Hints:
Layout: E1 10-16, H1 23-33, E2 36-40, H2 59-62, E3 67-68, H3 81-97, E4 101-106, H4 109-117, E5 118-119, H5 127-134, H6 138-148, H7 150-155, H8 161-174, H9 178-182, E6 186-187, E7 193-200, H10 204-220, H11 223-232, H12 240-243, H13 247-254, H14 260-285, E8 292-293, H15 299-314
Parallel strand pairs: 1-4, 1-7, 2-3, 2-4, 7-8
Antiparallel strand pairs: 5-6
Amino acid sequence: MNMNFPDPPVTVALIAGPTASGKSGLALALAQLTPATLINADASQVYRDLRVLSARPSAEEEAQAPHRLFGSIDGADSCSAAQWATEARAAILDSAAQGRLPILVGGTGLYLRTLLNGIAPVPEIDPLIRADIRALPLIDAYQALAREDAEAASRLSPNDSTRICRALEVVRSTGRPISDWQSDLVGGIGDKIRLHPLILLPPRDWLYARCDQRFVQMMEKGAIEEVEALLHRDLDPDLPVMRAIGVPEIAAMLSGQLSRDAAIEQGQRATRNYAKRQFTWFRNQSPAEWPRLEQALDNDLIDKFAIKLREDALT
């Protein structure tokens, strides 16, 4: 498929915010008002193994409008931000070619930033270097990073194993600090589209209560069976699907390490903490000019803002 963006620019709607803020419902309401395609921008909802635990749209909801990149990756694989952005670009162009409004919907800020702003063109990392670094104790990796890329080490928490290892493998494999690569982003589409964003930042008490309620519902509606199926596959425990919120807690319950009540309590806490991080990211990291909706969504607000997004996108 031709991955070049046309002129005039493609119109794209974006509905983003923390988990349980009502993004999917609003996106689906918008799709009822105009031909549209919902394009997933959530790092957990890409995995087909986690329909329930990732709060992916149901089969009935997916039947109401085309959905792309939902459940598109097997849990045995990892989906990087760069891979997702490539697939999202194709989905946007495909949707526009069909006369449908592409609606990006999700809460993974890294995905959206990579798609809109681009990604550092870091070459492939030498597998031997990666293996050596991943085998290091975290404290040793952090100390090595402090010696070899002090600027990166100063920006990272000593407990951030993923970013510490990434920065160390980049400087060792390329001879350049990761900040050098990140100053030269490529592949972003932000200047090639007409973006109509809306960030959902509802009251935190309302949001956390929804997180708690939804986790209980997940436990009752198939989340346990999803985790059982994952465990039977004997997947690498470091895979994203095995570290997704709810999976470790339910796995511990199934092994007898936690009671059901304790698994629910810990899963709810993990979900609230995740929502808090997302809330902070979108409040502070998304562009200041992007509209924020800071009210709790109800049916009236969903209808109101679906209509507004449609009017904005079609003008």
